[in-house]
Structures are given as C-alpha cells and as structure tokens.
Amino acid sequence: xxxxxxxxxxxxxxxxxxxxxxxxxxxxxxxxxxxxxxxxxxxxxxxxxxxxxxxxxxxxxxxxxxxxxxxxxxxxxxxxxxxxxxxxxxxxxxxxxxxxxxxxxxxxxxxxxxxxxxxxxxxxxxxxxxxxxxxxxxxxxxxxxxxxxxxxxxxxxxxxxxxxxxxxxxxxxxxxxxxxxxxxxxxxxxxxxxxxxxxxxxxxxxxxxxxxxxxxxxxxxxxxxxxxxxxxxxxxxxxxxxxxxxxxxxxxxxxxxxxx
Amino acid sequence: xxxxxxxxxxxxxxxxxxxxxxxxxxxxxxxxxxxxxxxxxxxxxxx
Lengths: 260, 47
Description:
The complex is a heterodimer. Chain A is mainly α. Chain A has helices at residues 18-41, 55-82, 85-117, 125-145, 153-180, 199-259. Chain B is mainly alpha-helical. Chain B is rod-shaped, with a radius of gyration of 19 Å. Chain B starts with 6 loop residues before the first helix and ends in an 11-residue tail after the last helix. The A-B interface holds A 2-5, 7-9, 12-17, 19, 31, 35, 38-39, 44, 49-51, 53-54, 57-58, 61, 100, 103-104, 107-108, 111-112, 114-115, 215, 218-219, 222-223, 225-226, 229-230, 232-233, 236 and B 4-7, 9-10, 12-14, 16-18, 20-21, 24-25, 28-29, 31-33, 35-41, 43-44, 46-47.
C-alpha cells in the first residue's frame, strides 16, 4: 500500500484545475438557463402537451451518449495502434461517462414513452439497439478489468478494445434504425435540412445539447484524471512490491553468503 | 394559474437525470481527491 503523500492534500490534491472550474461554472449557468426554457418558457406541444418537456433532457442525453461511444471507439483504435497509457485511460473514462448517459437515455425515454405511446417499454428498433449499446459499454468496461489466467494486461486491453471498436458502428445502427425498420420513434427531426421543430422549442433543444455537452466534458476531464491517478497508484504499488521482494531476496542472499 | 399536464413524468425524468449526474460527478471528484493524496504532485500534471 502506498503511503498518503503529504503534499497531495489541499486544493491541488484533486482532479480540479482552472479549466474544469470554468467548465463547471458554465455547465451550472447553462443548466439553470436550460431549466428555465425547458420547464417554463418553452410552449407545450399541441399533441404531446407538457410531456414534450422530457425531450429537452432525453435527446441531449442520447446525443452525448453517442458522442461518448464515438470517442471510446477512437480511443480503442488508437490504443490498438499506439498502446499508450493516455488512450487507454481515455477509453475507460469516455465509456464510463457514456454508460451513465446511455442509462439516462433509456430511463428518460421509458418515462416519456408512457404518456406518449402508452407504454414504458417496447422492443422498438431504436430502444433495442440503444439497449445493446448499454450492454456493449458494460462489456467493454468489464473486459478491461478481467485478467486472463496468465495475467496478461496487453491481451486484456486488446479484448476490451475490440468491443470498443464495435461501439460506434452500433451508434450508426441506432441512428438509422428508424429508417431501416418500422419504429415507434419518429424519423430525423433536427438533422434534416428543414427541421420539423422550430422557434423556442428548437432553441431549447439546441441549448440542451450544448449544456449536456458541457456537463459531459466536465465529467470526462475529471474521470480521465481519476483514471490517470489510478494508473499511477497501481504502478506505485507494483514498484513497492518489487522493492520489497528485492530487499527480501538480498537479505536471503546475504544470509546464504554468511553461512558459506 | 396555468395547468401543466404530466407533472409526475416530467419531475421524475428531470429529477433522475439531475440527481444521477450530481451523484456521479460528486463520486468522481471525491475519488479523485482520495487518489491525488497517494501520488506525488509531479504525477498530477494539471496542477
């Protein structure tokens, strides 16, 4: 076990920095504005009435989750190519934060589905493919932790990275699932040239995407730094164990030499 | 006063999202603080 480092305490002994404090402040200010628009100032929908206010949390969660999956795929590919610690840590950080947002996407979608479709759950293509994405993220994170019998970290990383490579292709399936199969979800709303949403509702949705993007960035930076620190602590523990083993071997050799 | 429909669903959806993000963020920051005390300052490149 590594002894606590005295200089690590205090304001610098954390994953915060000037940049994360600015990012955190912007996120909180943006979130306050978003709450105002999403819950008060934006109008109710003619068909869905006020349940449309769940769109401003569900769609941004989904977009951020998909961005996190894309980042994890890039990190997995770069790790397979370069095998550097930074890509390894980034892959784990983006997958974990992505898992949180994917779970929130499924939960808010389920809650929104009840007043809109009359059901909390349906094996709709988009819901099914998003659920698969959730399972793949769990699998990716699990594979990064499971050692094989030989304790080969490189092989463990390779297995995880292969699952990581499959995440973004699944995001493409999620996106186009509404076009490829019959779905309860509507087809593209904001990515087409003539969006089917406008005015305050469109502005609120865009604001939601920006604010959730800021929150994602803040979480990702902190989680990356936590991952980086975990690696440092793990290496320090290994170094301590090696030193203790060498010292022990030296003592044994010294005893052997004395009796020869 | 304006009548708002589906209040329970809206409160549940927003509450779960904001609560979950706050808890996850807090857990991450606290874990970072614990780990940061176990490494020398030169390993915390952001400080």
